[in-house]
Each structure stands twice: as structure tokens, then as C-alpha cells.
Amino acid sequence: MPEYDSLADALEGLRKEGFTLDYNIAFDQLACVQDGTCLKPDQFDIVGHHRFEGDSNPSDESVIYAIAAHDGSKKGVLVSAYGMYADAASEEIIRKLTVRETR
Asked: N or C: which end of the chain has fewer CB within 10 A?
């Protein structure tokens, strides 16, 4: 995956690559904003990610994940601030996101 200078650039680039859906963490799954469907951890892969660190404000730190359903039917993005997903996510989701972050 290419490197991006900003979160906005990453979103635009990933959209052009077909990652058109927006996901949110819903405790033990990823919920799609546009169509109301959900993906459990065993139904998707994180095929790429990009981290962004704020130059002057630590609260500007975020990560964008490129998500692809195993069956190929859905591709989208999940945007999260570092560490913020832990409170609203299951251990299984956290583990899946954390494993990708350490690679």
C-alpha cells in the first residue's frame, strides 16, 4: 500500500482502491454505516493500515484500517484513535486490530 501524508489523503486513496464502506466498532463486530450489515472477526481481514501522529497534539493520533470481507463482497475502512477502541470493543476485535498494528 502507498504511504499517505494525512488521514484525508489515506481515505481518498483507499476509496479509489475500492474501500468504499465505513465501519465502526460495535463491541464484538464491525458495523457498516451505509448498509447496516456487520462483520465478525472471523469474517474479515485487515489488508492494510496507516498510522498518523499529530505533530503538535497527541490527541490527533489515529489509524486507518483497510478491511476486506473474506467472501470478497465488502471492502471498507475503519478509522480509530490509538487505544480508544479498547473501551467499546470485545477482546477478539482488539486482538485482531492489535496484531495488525504490531506488524
From this structure: C
